[in-house]
Specification:
Elements lengths: L2 E2 L4 E2 H7 L4 H7 L20 H11 L17 H4 L3 E4 L7 E4 L9 E8 L4 E7 L5 E6 L2 E11 L2 E4 L7 E7 L1
Antiparallel strand pairs: 1-2, 3-10, 4-5, 4-10, 5-6, 6-8, 7-8, 8-9
Length: about 170
């Protein structure tokens, strides 16, 4: 950036000091604005269910925070996410957390898009090909699935029930 005035502050620095947000600065300087999903500081591996749920929550205005920067497998989100309310009831915008099951030691997370009734809801998720493909993100297939709370867990589009840990909601 070219210095402005005698103090040598860049336009970017001046706008920031005046309280303009990073997005506002980018708009003022006519720089491209990345969607929330693609902004820097995405702390999870691209293509994983955790990556998708983290990015989808960010798009909806929830910057999920963790207590540590490692060991954030899906099944551990229940304990590791620090800015969430815990519930056993789905609500739009919540993150569904599933425990490990035979053949998947890491569990699974998904984003709750809508709730049709107390026990039936719709999720979007990645890295678990259950449901219907609805598009891609950075080359990764995103699926939409109908989900139902059952006595023995969550069933996704007819898949046998998976072990429910719970739902994390923005605080």
């Amino acid at each position: 950036m070219k210095p402005v005035g005698r103090v040598g502050l860049s336009v970017l620095t001046l706008l920031t000091l005046c309280g303009v947000t990073a997005i506002g600065v980018r708009k003022a300087l006519h720089l491209p604005i990345l969607p929330a999903f693609l902004r820097p500081a995405q702390p999870l591996p691209t293509g994983q269910c955790t990556w998708y749920a983290f990015g989808r929550a960010a798009e909806a205005g929830w910057r999920i925070r963790f207590d540590v920067n490692n060991g954030r497998h899906a099944r551990l989100w229940w304990k590791k996410v620090t800015n969430a309310q815990k519930s056993q009831t789905p609500t739009p915008g919540a993150v569904l957390v599933l425990d490990a099951w035979p053949g998947n030691e890491y569990g699974h997370v998904a984003y709750v898009e809508s709730v049709e009734s107390g026990n039936s809801f719709t999720i979007t998720h990645a890295n678990f090909n259950v449901g219907s493909p609805v598009g891609t993100r950075e080359g990764v297939v995103v699926y939409r699935a109908s989900a139902h709370v059952r006595p023995k867990g969550i069933s996704l589009d007819g898949h046998p029930p998976l072990p429910l840990v719970g739902f994390l909601k923005k605080t």
